[in-house]
């Protein structure tokens, strides 16, 4: 797989395409793109068969090691790749370490190892174990092992350690990569660690660039510890460091960030030159029973940025979530029905909400690409910004905690089991 | 009366020459139903995470919904405003609703039955005691708008020793049927089915069936079974009831859904079945196959790269291995949906085999092969041997 920049503007905001995929000459994926966030190989609540009713376009599934660790041994014996194993062999896959929709526990570092937090507790991975997984999974793209355990408040010592670890993991992984026949044509993404310290970022970038032209792209890691908090991360906090790192990296390479970024911050990150995101934001919304209703096209005039379908005001609202939306949930089901499913804790509720949220979020990315193409991204930013700010103010007034508590009730469907 | 639209047409298309099994086509307001049929249970207006689009694609023709649950939430008012349950849940094929009575007796310890109806403690705290009368049950079922609705019956545990109470329930069920018919406001679009009662007493079953069949309705149910009685008692009552009920109308055996029971009771002449078992067991990680069930929680499947059942056409079997399902089964809600899909497909496939073999005149051979598959050691339970013997099928 290769990345090509399509716009004259080789740096931010830019359009690109991923193509020349091994065995799949016809597949093209345009950037900026949102990888489909998965858990255990599935978009939460949506089976691959149902997803076909949402989109027929080629997609890249973001496979997190933490949610697939249980298959570590199984995959040693399985002949195919991960996409086939999880039942979606037409999809491309991108292997990453953590699940961006869940908070990654901080600390617990052990020399030469990275802790991941699976459903059965802590598991330590070193470069060798990680690369074994990569070889068994055979993803189309993957990130090298990294130490991303930093955030705005990390002390210098932690930051230095994170950079040191990431450099050493990357070198070890790369050594394996170069030797591996299986991985020869895979798209390798190098992690840039270093928290909010530009010196540390510099050090990491310098060390990795010394490895020569082996990386197809980069991940700006260590901006946060994942989970729903990322939604509320002020852009001003991340802007400086992201901008710095992007400018330091070779401009022909793909650049990605991970996490539940809200749409406004997505646009701002695109403007800095980020090409790859993921749909973990859709999961955190779905878990709090919220559906995205921000306007994407100029002729759309929904008042709310998002709506919470648990709200009893929807109990007799037989309209769809979003009037003009063409997704399966909006064309066939009403807010009243989804509200009913939520009140009786039925599994179909998050299925329908997720179908809409993913559809909406992918439509948003399509719009971003369109706006880059015709130079109207700022207008889109302004439009979404107005709606988002109004929404955000409302939450702040309401007490942010109460709002986020919606998240805890999201596991009800699992309790039903 | 001229121009009455008949909301149920039942045509027997093939009869087994050995047993009482028959294959039929039933036409309901929302399309055809091929019988013998198994109806999965979508209690609250949804089938356990499955999209109706998917069920449609699978060829499901009818599913159940529960009046007690839907009457509580979202309630008849919202259902009426939505234009009925079909529209509300986006399901344009057939629906059947129960009367709500069974749920009250089974779910609510405080239920008390008198001539007026079933009195129970409302889950809704403010309301206190609530009475579900035959009229009220039909009113809710009219709001739901299912193609087949059930009369409110006086359900007694099959294990109850009190014959006089059982006798009372038989007569009361008939009296309640008349009240249900009287209260029914959509007889042109919704079929009301009476329910034969009488637990394990043959004389009472005869009285019940006799009285109910006098009301000229489009189909009949056999109730009060599958409630803890022995299989030896169970099959004899089914056998008796199918003899008592008219041949030209569908017979619905309530609450039965294990594969073996479906095969035996089809041989005894039952046309319709329902049970929560296949969808419930799916949520516990169990997948059904023609030779028994797989508990996918077991670690032995971790390296098993076969589908649940290589002969199954469902998309779970087409796309996923036992190893994968085993890894997600206790962890992701999606696993419930995938196994539910398989189990519903399994029930449909089994019923298809039953219907096909009846139509091809090979039903007894099918029964023999099926039972041998489940009991390869030929140690058949006696009730299976006896019940099949009663309809002239001998096992291999």
Automatic annotation (TrEMBL), chain A:
One of its GO terms (cellular component) is cytoplasm. It holds the Pfam family TGT. Its main location: cytoplasm. GO terms for molecular function: metal ion binding; tRNA-guanosine(34) queuine transglycosylase activity. PANTHER family: QUEUINE TRNA-RIBOSYLTRANSFERASE ACCESSORY SUBUNIT 2. Belongs to the queuine tRNA-ribosyltransferase family. QTRT2 subfamily. This is Queuine tRNA-ribosyltransferase accessory subunit 2.
Automatic annotation (TrEMBL), chain B:
It is found in: Cytoplasm. GO terms for cellular component: cytosol. NCBIfam families: Q_tRNA_tgt, tgt_general. Its EC number is 2.4.2.64. One of its GO terms (molecular function) is metal ion binding. It comes from Psylliodes chrysocephalus. The active site is at 98 (proton acceptor), 274 (nucleophile). Heterodimer of a catalytic subunit and an accessory subunit. Residues 255-261, 279-283 are annotated as: RNA binding. Keywords: Cytoplasm, Glycosyltransferase, Metal-binding, Transferase, tRNA processing, Zinc. Zn(2+) binds at residues 312, 314, 317, 342. Belongs to the queuine tRNA-ribosyltransferase family. Catalytic subunit of the queuine tRNA-ribosyltransferase (TGT) that catalyzes the base-exchange of a guanine (G) residue with queuine (Q) at position 34 (anticodon wobble position) in tRNAs with GU(N) anticodons (tRNA-Asp, -Asn, -His and -Tyr), resulting in the hypermodified nucleoside queuosine (7-(((4,5-cis-dihydroxy-2-cyclopenten-1-yl)amino)methyl)-7-deazaguanosine). Catalysis occurs through a double-displacement mechanism. The nucleophile active site attacks the C1' of nucleotide 34 to detach the guanine base from the RNA, forming a covalent enzyme-RNA intermediate. Substrate binds at residues 98-102, 153, 197, 224. One of its GO terms (biological process) is tRNA modification. Its cofactor is Zn(2+). Residues 19-371 form the tRNA-guanine(15) transglycosylase-like domain. It catalyses: guanosine(34) in tRNA + queuine = queuosine(34) in tRNA + guanine. This is Queuine tRNA-ribosyltransferase catalytic subunit 1.
């Amino acid at each position: 797989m290769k990345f090509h920049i399509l716009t004259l503007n080789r740096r931010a905001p830019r359009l690109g395409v991923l193509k020349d995929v091994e065995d799949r000459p016809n597949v093209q994926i345009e950037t900026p793109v949102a990888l489909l966030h998965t858990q255990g190989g599935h978009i939460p609540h949506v089976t691959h068969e149902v997803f076909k009713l949402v989109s027929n376009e080629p997609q890249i599934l973001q496979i997190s090691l933490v949610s697939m660790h249980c298959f570590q041994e199984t995959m040693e014996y399985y002949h195919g790749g991960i996409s086939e194993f999880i039942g979606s062999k037409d999809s491309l896959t991108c292997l990453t370490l953590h699940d961006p929709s869940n908070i990654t526990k901080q600390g617990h570092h052990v020399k030469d190892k990275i802790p991941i937090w699976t459903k059965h507790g802590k598991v330590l991975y070193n470069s060798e174990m990680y690369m074994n997984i990569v070889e068994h999974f055979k993803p189309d793209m993957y990130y090298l092992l990294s130490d991303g355990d930093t955030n705005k408040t990390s002390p210098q010592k932690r930051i230095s350690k994170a950079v040191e670890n990431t450099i050493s993991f990357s070198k070890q992984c790369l050594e394996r990569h170069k030797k591996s026949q299986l991985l020869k044509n895979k798209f390798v993404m190098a992690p840039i660690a270093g928290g909010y310290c530009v010196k540390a970022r510099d050090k990491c970038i310098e060390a990795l660039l010394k490895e020569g032209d082996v990386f197809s792209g980069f991940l700006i890691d260590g901006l946060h510890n994942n989970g729903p908090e990322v939604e509320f991360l002020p852009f001003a906090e991340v802007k400086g460091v992201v901008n710095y790192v992007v400018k330091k990296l070779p401009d022909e390479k793909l650049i990605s960030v991970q996490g539940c970024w809200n749409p406004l911050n997505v646009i701002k990150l695109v403007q800095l030159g980020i090409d790859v995101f993921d749909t973990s934001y859709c999961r955190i919304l779905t878990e709090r029973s919220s559906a995205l209703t921000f306007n994407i096209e100029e002729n759309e005039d929904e008042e709310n940025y998002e709506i919470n379908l648990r709200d009893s005001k929807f109990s007799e609202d037989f309209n769809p979530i979003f009037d003009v939306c063409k997704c399966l949930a909006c064309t066939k089901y009403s807010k009243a029905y989804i509200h009913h499913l939520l009140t009786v804790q039925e599994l179909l509720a998050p299925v329908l909400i997720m179908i809409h949220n993913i559809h909406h979020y992918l439509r948003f990315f399509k719009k971003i690409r369109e706006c880059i193409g015709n130079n109207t991204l700022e207008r889109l930013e302004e439009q979404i910004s107005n709606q988002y700010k109004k929404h955000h103010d409302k939450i702040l007034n309401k007490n942010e905690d109460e709002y986020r508590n919606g998240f805890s009730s999201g596991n009800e469907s699992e309790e039903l089991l | 009366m001229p121009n009455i639209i008949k909301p149920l047409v039942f045509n027997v298309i093939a009869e087994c020459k050995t047993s009482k099994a028959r294959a039929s086509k039933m036409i309901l307001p929302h399309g055809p139903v091929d019988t013998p049929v198994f109806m999965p249970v979508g209690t609250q207006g949804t089938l356990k995470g499955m999209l109706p689009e998917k069920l449609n694609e699978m060829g499901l023709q009818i599913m159940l919904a529960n009046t007690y649950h839907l009457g509580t939430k979202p309630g008849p008012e919202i259902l009426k405003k939505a234009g009925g349950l079909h529209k509300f849940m986006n399901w344009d094929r057939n629906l059947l609703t129960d009367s709500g009575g069974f749920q009250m007796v089974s779910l609510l310890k405080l239920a008390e039955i008198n001539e007026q109806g079933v009195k129970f403690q409302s889950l809704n705290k403010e309301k206190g005691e609530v009475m579900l009368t035959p009229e009220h049950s039909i009113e809710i079922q009219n709001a739901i708008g299912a193609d087949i609705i059930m009369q409110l019956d006086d359900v007694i545990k099959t294990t109850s020793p009190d014959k006089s109470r059982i006798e009372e329930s038989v007569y009361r069920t008939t009296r309640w049927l008349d009240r249900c018919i009287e209260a029914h406001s959509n007889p042109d679009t919704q079929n009301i089915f009476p329910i034969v009662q009488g637990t394990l007493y043959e004389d009472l079953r005869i009285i019940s069936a006799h009285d109910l069949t006098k009301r000229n309705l489009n189909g009949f149910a056999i109730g009060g079974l599958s409630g803890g009685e022995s299989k030896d008692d169970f099959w004899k009552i089914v056998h008796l009831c199918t003899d008592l009920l008219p041949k030209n109308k569908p017979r619905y055996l309530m609450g039965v859904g294990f594969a073996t029971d479906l095969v035996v009771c089809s041989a005894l002449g039952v046309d319709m079945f329902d049970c929560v078992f296949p969808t419930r067991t799916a949520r516990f990680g169990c997948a059904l196959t023609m030779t028994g069930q797989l508990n996918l929680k077991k670690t032995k499947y971790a390296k098993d790269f076969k589908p649940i059942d290589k002969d199954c056409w469902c998309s779970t079997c087409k796309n996923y291995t036992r190893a994968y399902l085993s890894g997600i089964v206790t962890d992701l809600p999606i696993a419930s949906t995938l196994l539910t899909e398989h189990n519903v497909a399994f029930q449909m496939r089994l019923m298809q085999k039953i219907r096909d073999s009846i139509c091809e005149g090979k039903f007894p051979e099918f029964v023999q092969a099926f039972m041998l598959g489940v009991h390869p050691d030929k140690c058949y339970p006696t009730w299976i041997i006896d019940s099949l013997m009663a309809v002239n099928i001998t096992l291999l």
